[in-house]
Specification:
Blueprint (H helix, E strand, L loop, with lengths): L1 E22 L3 E25 L2 E24 L12 E8 L2 E16 L2 E12 L7 E13 L4 E12 L19 E13 L4 E13 L4 E4 L14 E4 L3 E13 L6 E16 L2 E4 L6 E11 L2 E10 L3 E2 L9 E2 L3 E13 L4 E9 L7 E10 L5 E9 L4 E9 L1
Length: 403
């Protein structure tokens, strides 16, 4: 059996930002930015199954795109903040760019079932971009996976793949003063997975993974306080130049039922780490969390539905002016969310009224550190660090009409 699908699409968007920041004694600035983007894409896919044991998928993609950038930034950092991180006392930027180029891709997949219990998947993908700094930005990505079904309730899977992520033409980091595109980033994934369904109805899923990242482009972060509307103007904005990184971990998930059953519960645990490798050494990424536990339950009772989900994990890395980047950690994060809803049949469709409560017991989970200048005991100004928190308890009430 042969199947074919062709898609022609047009995408366009416009984005404008106007910002003003004034933190007396620390930093002030203004940001005026505009972006326009347009892309036309043609995609063709074929799928061929000559028998029950063979399947071949082939696809082609061509995408032409152009963008318009207008950027402007004026930023003044006061002492002593102008002497830390990547700061300068005064920064002024203004440039306009009009990049244009194309993305091409060709990909294929071969699925073969040589035995009743064995399925083999092999794939290869080719990509090219014409607008980056590389004179020949082409990538070849092999992928392979093996699935073995030991019996009706157990299956084993092993997968390997090389993946590239190209910088889209609308992702130029102009807000941080970058006016050139970087070559595609590369990631090599190795995953092993075991799934088993017990006679009691409980399903167990265990995964082990390792992801090696290469040719990473620089990224920008706010190391003290990431919760800000204009991160580029803050004094704690830094460039993380880590050409290599590694992520690895193990995940365990146990569940009973499914999301549309009267009773469904699940529990998960994971151990993981994400480490950047820079010229100065290794560093935990800002979203690294060593231990994570999650649980949830949902229950249907007639027209009523109740659900709750909780999470606890190791605190995220923390930076202070007196420490190295991500050398410390915030305290343990934990929260519980709950929801209750009821369905009402109406003349046209169904009404669902619901009450949701986020952070049910109003846990103060630290998120960031805020610095300020305050008068000291002797009258002289002092630098004060204050720990800030994610949102407290947040209830929300709503109605959904389906017709």
């Amino acid at each position: 059996m042969l199947q074919s699908e062709a898609i022609v699409s047009l995408n366009a968007f416009s984005d404008k930002r106007i910002a003003l920041l004034d933190m007396p004694g620390i930093v002030s600035g203004a940001l005026d930015e505009a972006r326009d983007f347009m892309a036309v894409e043609i995609r063709q896919d074929w799928s061929y199954s000559p028998s029950d044991t063979w399947m071949v998928n082939v696809g082609l993609r061509a995408r032409h795109q152009d963008a318009e950038y207008r950027h402007s930034l004026v930023k003044t950092v006061q002492a002593p903040f102008d002497q830390i991180l990547d700061n300068a006392p005064f920064v002024s930027r203004s440039f306009e760019l009009s990049p244009e180029g194309a993305q091409y891709a060709a990909y294929s997949e071969l699925r073969w079932q040589p035995l009743k219990k064995l399925i083999v998947d092999l794939g290869l993908r080719w990509d090219q971009q014409t607008y980056t700094t590389s004179s020949d930005d082409r990538q070849y990505s092999p992928r392979a996976s093996i699935l073995w079904r030991g019996n009706d309730r157990t299956e084993f899977r092993v997968g390997f793949g090389q993946f590239y992520q190209a910088q889209e033409i609308n992702e130029l980091q102009v807000s941080d003063g970058v006016d050139t595109f970087f070559p595609a980033q590369r990631a090599t994934h190795v995953v092993a997975n075991v799934k088993h369904g017990f006679r009691s109805g409980i399903d167990l899923d265990v995964s082990l993974y390792r992801k090696a990242f290469r040719s990473l482009r620089p990224r920008f972060e706010n190391v003290f306080n990431a919760l800000t509307l204009v991160p580029e103007l803050q004094f704690d904005r830094v460039m993380i130049n880590a050409p290599e990184a590694e992520s690895r971990g193990i995940e365990l998930m146990a569940s009973y039922g499914a999301g549309d059953d009267d009773l469904f519960w699940w529990f998960g645990y994971s151990w993981s780490e994400v480490i950047d490798t820079m010229a100065s050494g290794k560093m935990k990424r800002s979203w690294d969390q060593t231990h994570t536990g999650k649980l949830g339950v949902s229950w249907r009772w007639g027209a009523w539905s109740f659900s709750a989900a909780g999470e606890v994990h190791t605190g995220w890395p923390k930076s202070l002016i007196s420490s190295e980047l991500n050398a410390l950690r915030y305290s343990v994060f934990h929260t519980l969310d709950a929801r209750a809803s009821r369905d009402f049949d109406v003349k046209r469709g169904t009404l669902t009224a619901f009450l949701e409560v986020t952070n049910l017991y109003s846990r103060q989970n630290p998120c960031c550190t805020e610095y300020s200048i305050q008068p000291g005991p002797g009258g002289a100004d002092e630098l004060v660090a204050t720990e800030k928190y994610w949102l407290p308890i947040v209830p929300s009430l709503g109605v959904v009409w389906r017709f």
